[in-house]
Specification:
Length: about 400
Amino acid sequence: MQGEFDVLIIGGGLVGASLACALGQAGVRTCVVEASPLGGGQQSGYDERSIALAQGSQRIFAGLGLWSALQPEACPIHTIHVSDRGHYGFTRLRREQEGVAALGYVATARVLGKVLVEGLQRLDAVQVLAPAQLTAFHIDADAVHADIEHRGETLRCTAGLLVAADGAQSAVRRQLGIETTRRDYEQTAIIANVSTDKPHNNVAFERFTDSGPLALLPMTGARSALVWTVRADQSEEVIALDDAAFLERLQQRFGYRLGRFTRVGSRNAFPLQLLQASESVRPRLALIGNAVHTLHPIAGQGFNLGLRDVAALVDVILDARRSGQDIGSLALLQRYAEWRQADQRRVALFTDSMVRLFGQSLPPVAWLRDAGMLALDACPPAKRWFGRMTMGRAGRLPRLARGLSIADE
């Protein structure tokens, strides 16, 4: 079996599926290759994994026509409270100050995946191969040629553009020898859902501690999503605690702003690193999402940055189609790379600097950062700049990131 496509996407996770939805709505012949079964995510339950959606990401899903399906199960964030444990520094962002209905939202990966899969299934221009594996590929002047193993067969596909959306351990990136720079934070993120005896009232908390940031994000079902960063040498001990001891340790680190912690679900641990690819494009190749940048989870920027990659690449591809250009040409793809470079670098620098700054325990450093947080809280122009950046509304925005539909492109 053979297939000819305009775009071949390797990786059908949330970022890759979002790109396929956008391209398919514009009639771009797209093939998605995903290693896991389609729609094979977790079932509904207390332990569902959550994802923070910036306000700019909500606009992208609105532009895709998917927000109406997501909204009923997405918990809005009305306030973000940032504090420094053991010190006086804090700052708050409120939706009223930013003139938005919500600063962001928290949705489960299950719901996001379900909505995207249903969207893909409505698109005649999109073919999804799952579970499937890219076994070989080569790129020549005219096309990408790929061998894909699917249901015991080898499918030979050609496309004008190959998009690597296959995550931080990207096989496409490795096969092409694209170098990366990495920084091991020597920290581990412990992920779980928790309940408290006070309602979260749609407040998201980011609390900096001497072992790393601790975030609580409001969820539906009277839950909060916990992202607790600990030193790598502490992670096994914290994971091994029974529920009561875990909640007591968490109480000590977070405090009582939400009352007492009453329940914790299953816990997972992930080592943290900063990864940046040295190249994001080559002739007939583009990297998006974690394949090109993997960040510390501080401020919840990673997935949102990947969605903005999607929105910019879609604009570049559709502009090329309108003008009759080759969507795989290096000159064209460099427009995508240059467009995304400032945002990617800005967010990577922001998250990395926050980790470094709040990891310092020297009294002068602590005093300066706390004074800076109070100054930010008291300075509306600075707070607006900070808010626009964290909401994904800074810089030149592609069509989807402005909430505009591309279905009629």
